[in-house]
Write the structure tokens for this entry.
Amino acid sequence: MKKYLIAILAIFSLGQLSFIPSAFAETPRVSIPDFADLVERASPAVVNIRTTEKVAVQQAQGGIPGLPDDQAEFFRRFFGVPIPGIPNQPKQSQPNSGKPQEADRGVGSGFIIDSNGLVLTNAHVVEGATTIYVTLTDKREFKAKLLGMDKRTDVAVVKIDARDLPKLPLGDSSRVRVGEWVLAIGSPFGLENTVTAGIVSAKSRDTGDYLPFIQTDVAVNPGNSGGPLLNTAGQVIGINSQIFSRSGGYMGISFAIPIDEAMRVADQLRSNGKMVRGRIGVALGEMTKEVAESLGLGKPRGAYVRNVEPGGPAATGGIESGDVILNFNGRDIAKSTDLPRVVGDTKPGTSATVQVWRKGSTKDLTVVVTDGEAAVAGAKKPESPNSNGGSTNAFGVAVVDVSDAKKKELNIRGGVEVTGLNEGPLARSGVRPGDVIIRIADADITGVKQFEALVKGLDANKAVPVFVRRADSTLVIPVKPK
């Protein structure tokens, strides 16, 4: 029996030995890249940016403000502050009382994109600076001129008076792949030409209106801002801009502005000194799964229009509150945050075709894009609700007809105003007195009688979208009447 067992084990072992190498032979091996040559080529084009600002300095007379006399005496003796009554002390240069003095403001990074001295960095690195100093790796320091900055995208372009400088090649951020190796070069905490490496953690991470960030696990700290994010070919694919942190330091997640987006902004800053964006005058809301299903879209997609600016381009073109914009001038809109970028990229004066979803079907409209940012009026408090009168229904609300004054204020044509609620489905969804119900599913609300008849005929087990006007916003609330 023992001999048989040994023979079986030997056969099993031989099978294992023959199996393992073949399995590993079919698995591609991934090697960790050596960044040394890449860093040697790229580092000379990465710069340190130091900024200063003018501050008012008050000269202390006699004692040192905020310190008792004995502590003030200590500072006089050991830190060179002159002591009255003692001759032959070294003279101290004192600022004139109240006169603005140049003080260090902060340190950041940047990189050269043109051999004639153009440097790309973050807007927050240079914003508010009186003087910008750019230091190269060969220790030459230049005063830089700010050509322009855009706070919405956090991109700035500065110019130094130098020629034949090394510059970094630009990559294609649209081809970045999650998991690929990347590295950052910058001046964290003022430590010039510090190199850190990692991988791309995610793409198109939305943290702002105009920026689909590249997310990485590269160690980025204060001072890295404005420095390049490089791929293994030594090409710039992003500008290191933000970190997620609860401590102020690196916690494993950092964000970079895609270089394609950054250069689109930089080109305008170089030529115009500012960023020109298209606008159509809409305020957007979140498109949730529940809202999409209630509207018949099936899955969340498009940009939900929460409000339309009265007299603005969208209103003139026929876009209404509650519409869902699915396509703008030939570009599909996957989510609400896509629309500001697409509209912003559109040249003012362009007649854009806009496809919207309204009342269960698509509709093509034409909107003329204008220049500048949307100026949506501030929300006003709803009128004091009238708790008397009205009626109750399967939605659990008491409603009255909307006054002409309120129609004009809310820029609506009809609807019913909520004056009271019980523990019904609308109350649980956050509707409150003063709100105006303007539409249920595909039916516009014209008055109390029509509203009551419509609610009475609804399927109690099927959710319907209820469009509620509140101040300058339109809410879409999926409701099951019971």
